[in-house]
Amino acid sequence: MHRSVTAVLALLLALPLAAATIDVQVSNAGGAAMSDAVVYAIPPHPIPVGHKVASMDQRDRTFIPHVLPIQTGTWVEFPNSDNVRHQVYSLSPAKRFQLPLYAGKPAYPVQFGTPGVVFLGCNIHEQMSAYVVVVDTPYFAKTEAGRASIAGLEPGQYTLHVWYPEMRKEPEPQIVTVSANDHPSVTFTAK
Predict the structure, then answer these.
(1) What's the pLDDT score for residue 85?
(2) CA 156, CA 133: separation in Å to the nearest integer?
């Protein structure tokens, strides 16, 4: 009997929890779809980050990806896939740092512990720029052709935000309440 109960409990724990997904569309004032917009859903309670690592590569003297959304506390590696050396830096209030001139992969990643937008540059190649968007939630996505989906949401109420390069004013956040297996759609128009 005890083995049967244990087996049933193990099976139930292995089943995926019913989760919701929010589909988001972001367009500019003229109605054109916007790529590289970061959409994120803030839950009513904080969710710990655990140990996460992301990567911002440098290829053909360009940061790849141009926009990297991450959760607060995530470590970011900055590999250099170019055959020239780079010196990555940020003067942003959310994270100030400078990696020494290097080729290949620096000895250590950089941890981003404060939410906000971090503008990146290269002291050697001034045309290089990128953004790390640090958010206080694991629920985020980046748009492609103006669309993104935020999946894995537990039932509850979320405050939905959007950020995009060259943003002058954040569009009004939207409150979305989801229940298990919901699939609501939300639209943002950039100003």
Answers:
(1) 86
(2) 24
Q: How many domains does the chain have?
A: 2
DSSP the chain: -HHHHHHHHHHHHHSPPP-EEEEEEEE-TTS-B-SS-EEEEE-SS-----S-EEE-EEETTEEESSEEEEETT-EEE--B-SSS-B-EEEEETTEEEEPPSBSB--SS-EE--S-EEEEEEESS-TT-EEEEEEESSS-EEE-BTTEEEEEEEPSEEEEEEEE-TT-SSPPPPEEEEE-TT---EEEEE--
Task: Give yes or no: residues 184 and 111 share one domain.
Answer: no
Q: What are phi and psi of 47, to 5 degrees?
A: -120, 125
Neighbour-count burial of 26, counting CB atoms closer than 10 A to its CB (0-12 exposed, 13-18 middle, 19+ buried): buried
Query: Do the domain assignments include residue 7?
Result: no
Q: What is the pLDDT of residues 148-161, one digit of tens each?
A: 999 999 999 999 99
Residue appearing with tokens 């000895």: 107
